[in-house]
Amino acid sequence: MSSYVGVDWASKGWLAVETDGQDWTATMHPSIHSVWFEHRDAASILVDIPIGLPSDRRRRCDREAKEFLGSARASSVFWTPCRAAVEADSYDRAAEANEERRGDGLSSQAWGIVPRIREVDRLLRDDPEATTVIRESHPEVCFAAFRGGDPPGSKQSETGKEERLRCLERVDDTVSGVFGEFVARHVDGVSPWARRIGKSNRDDLLDAMALALTAKLGGGEFDTFPTDPPTDDNGLPMEIVYVDP
């Protein structure tokens, strides 16, 4: 039976939510290579991290995702740093590289996940097989697509979390009860792995679930921003995938 995986960085590790179409599981991993080792037989793995790094301009997929989400939620999609910035060894040098190559700065949010961008980029460049399974998505885009183009409220609020949960349950009834089970086991209870999901990472659970559900519904065929994704200098697609259920 095929499995589908959504992966989100959750401050203490990579959170991977997997579904086989009926059952759901959640695990934490110390590296994206660990995720790939565990789930390399999955039909699709969607990860909330930039794949495909621009050399001298902003990515079209970031721009189109922002436009899709509208002014209220556009800030949830940040501008992906250029490759020279990702490969820089300090924030100052990274910001300088971004400024030199495309004339804009580098947000602290973008710099904060540069180590994760490097991880995913290295895996995909080292293992061509991974590029056929692992693709970039974005939870906010997924949720908005599930809701007919209407983004939910901020995921930092209880109302926003509830909107997201109800959205997932409406799209697929196998989701019913899953989030509560995950919280009871991995947040309030004792997880079977060393790194626990903290209370502050409950929204990451919902994000990873949205990515896994998108992978399941897409079955390998996705809508993309943009519709004709370009590739970076290493042949990696610069795209954000989603499904319109």
Automatic annotation (TrEMBL):
Q: Which Pfam families does the record cross-reference, listed alphabetically?
A: DUF429 (PF04250)
InterPro entries under this entry?
Answer: DUF429
Superkingdom, natural source: Archaea
Q: What's the name of the protein?
A: DUF429 domain-containing protein
Q: Which organism is it from?
A: Halobiforma nitratireducens JCM 10879
